[in-house]
């Protein structure tokens, strides 16, 4: 078996009490040294991790905000596997670049909707089918669109309170059309 330090990905071996037993060089390059893996969790992810990073969820991927060395928290996919003795094996793959791209696309959509809303008296035109998406970038575009959809759903309660739920509906309609356009031909 490969030694933890030689793993080519950010990897942690943790005890049942979340104390770190071994760390890969890739993880050491990204995360600050801490004795307990939970210390890497951003405050907003602690409750989620407490319930989902556990032996009962072995094999499950969890999205968590983790503190990376020298920068604020970043979004990571945490893949977990647990041994019968309670040893946890965690691989943490960064997602921040996709989140940043999706956030930027959401910001641009919001600006467009606000501009169109002001120009059209608040009325929305039906969503138009976008041009086909270039195939080499299809996977990244689909992931970004799906992330934007998730972000819109997180914003929906706030938009509803402001009587702007139609913004969320319009964004979701555009996302659905873009995902249809990105679907493989066949």
Spell out the helices and strands N to C.
Answer: EEHHEEEHHH
Q: Treating each run of at least 4 consecutive H or I residues as one helix, how many helices? A: 5
- CATH-derived architecture of the largest domain: 2-Layer Sandwich
CATH topology of the largest domain: Beta-Lactamase
Q: Please, what is the average pLDDT?
A: 80
Helix content: 40-55%
| C-alpha end-to-end distance | 43 Å
Structural class: alpha+beta
Describe the structure.
By secondary structure, this protein is of the alpha+beta class. It folds into two domains: 4-94, PAS domain (Beta-Lactamase), CATH 3.30.450; 97-182, no CATH class. The chain is built from five helices and five strands; from the N terminus they run E-E-H-H-E-E-E-H-H-H. The protein has helices at 25-30, 46-52, 96-119, 138-161, 165-182, and strands at residues 11-14, 20-23, 61-67, 73-82, 88-94. The chain has a five-stranded antiparallel sheet, sandwiched between helices. A hairpin with a 5-residue loop joins strand 4 and strand 5. The longest helix is centred in the middle third of the chain and has 24 residues, at 96-119. The mean pLDDT is 80. Residues 114-139 are annotated as: Disordered.
Question: What are the key terms here?
Answer:
alpha+beta; five-stranded antiparallel beta sheet; single chain; Beta-Lactamase; 5 strands; 186 residues; 2 domains
Brief write-up:
This protein has two domains: 91 residues, PAS domain (Beta-Lactamase, 2-Layer Sandwich); 86 residues, no CATH class. Strands 2-1-5-4-3 form a five-stranded antiparallel beta sheet, with helices on both faces.
